[in-house]
Amino acid sequence: MRRVSLSQFLIEEQRAGRLDADLRLLVEVVARAVKAIAVTISKGKLWDVHGETGVENVQGEVQKKLDVIANELLLQANEWGGHLAAMASEEVEEICHIPFEYPRGGYLLLFDPLDGSSNIEVNISVGTIFSVLRNPDREAIPTEASFLQPGTAQVAAGYAIYGPATQLVLTTGNGVHGFTLDREFGYFVYTHPFMTIPPQTSEFAINCSNMRFWEPPVRRYIEELIAGKEGPRGRDFNMRWVASMVSDVHRTLSRGGIFLYPLDAKNRAQGGKLRLLYEANPMALLVEQAGGAAIDGRRRLLEIVPQRLHQRVPVILGSKEEVERVRAYHEEADAS
Ligand SMILES: O=P(O)(O)OC[C@H]1O[C@](O)(COP(=O)(O)O)[C@@H](O)[C@@H]1O
Ligand SMILES: [Mg+2]
Ligand SMILES: [Mg+2]
């Protein structure tokens, strides 16, 4: 089979009018930063990149060294290209402006530089998640308000997974496409065209240690899955939980499944665990583009109008029939 590189794929998409030169450059630059992050992660203790910085970020979490390194690699790679108006990162409280000496473009880039941080030191797959919006006022210097757009306004979204292989999974609104890094040649090869999520599944992912904190609809749904053949679902379900959203969603995009990080008594005050703008929205766009569904329990995630840059939301996504069932259980509970 003819090897097609990420660059060739993007040029074809541009020729087909599905993305412009600036968006193509943006994705290329993100991919280049991802390669640098992949090398750094693979070095682990050899380069002393494990461990914490002792500094707390805007999320109230102590940053890992690799959170900071990945954040710097993405900021530095993207700030000079001329395709961006500004950036926002999980690791930085305020939006990140483009230095005045560099030209500004029309896009806004949001990212979770390192997802699944709790897995870094134990050599389990982690990732990088990104989302792309347009600067609403092309001429104006962006403010935080410029980023508060619903997920439906995304022009591109993707993630990198640093696992046994490094992969980049991407959508620009024409399906979901996967690329695998050929470390020897140093470029991404188009390996997974039009990834799709089957509507039915027998696999679920949730952190079951939070069960006593869940809302009744989620508790009912998960208890029925665990009851399996002996229960109302009449068939068995299997569970997986990597505790890296990128890995759990990649498995769901690769073979189906349902991923839940619902609202619970522990995270209710924050509005949920995962972040709307650079975790939930990009994953929701990818899942919908692959034929799945994504909700916060009641609403379509992509229609939520963000109020704050680091806002958190409940996330339930994956195979359509299961997500629809969870939504129906919430509706029933709300009606009773
Ligand atoms: O530790 P828990 O409760 O299982 O939570 C795991 C979740 O937290 C996260 O690690 C949060 O993301 P970050 O690592 O980017 O902060 C998700 O990737 C993952 O789904
Ligand atoms: Mg994350
Ligand atoms: Mg992170």
What is the compact description of this entry?
This is Fructose-1,6-bisphosphatase class 1. It holds the Pfam family FBPase_C. The chain is of the alpha+beta class.
What does this protein structure show overall?
By secondary structure, the protein is of the alpha+beta class. It folds into two domains: 187 residues, Fructose-1,6-Bisphosphatase, Chain A, domain 1 (2-Layer Sandwich), CATH 3.30.540.10; 133 residues, D-Maltodextrin-Binding Protein, domain 2. 31% of the residues lie in helices and 24% in strands. It has eight helices and 17 strands. The strands form four sheets. Strands 4-3-5-6-7-8-9-10 form an eight-stranded mixed β-sheet, with helices on both faces. The chain binds 1,6-di-O-phosphono-beta-D-fructofuranose and magnesium ion (2 copies). The site of one magnesium ion has 4 residues, from strand 5. The site of one magnesium ion (MG) has 6 residues, from strand 5.
Task: Indicate the topology.
Elements: H1 6-15, H2 21-43, E1 52-56, E2 62-64, H3 65-79, E3 84-89, E4 96-97, E5 107-115, E6 126-134, H4 144-147, E7 156-162, E8 166-171, E9 177-182, E10 187-192, E11 203-205, H5 216-227, E12 238-239, H6 245-255, E13 258-261, E14 274-275, H7 276-289, E15 293-295, E16 312-313, E17 315-318, H8 320-335
Parallel strand pairs: 3-5, 11-12, 11-13
Antiparallel strand pairs: 1-2, 3-4, 5-6, 6-7, 7-8, 8-9, 9-10, 13-17, 14-16, 15-17
Helix pairs in contact: 1-2, 2-3, 5-8
This protein binds 1,6-di-O-phosphono-beta-D-fructofuranose and magnesium ion (2 copies).
Enzyme class: hydrolase
Protein name: Fructose-1,6-bisphosphatase class 1
GO molecular function: fructose 1,6-bisphosphate 1-phosphatase activity; magnesium ion binding
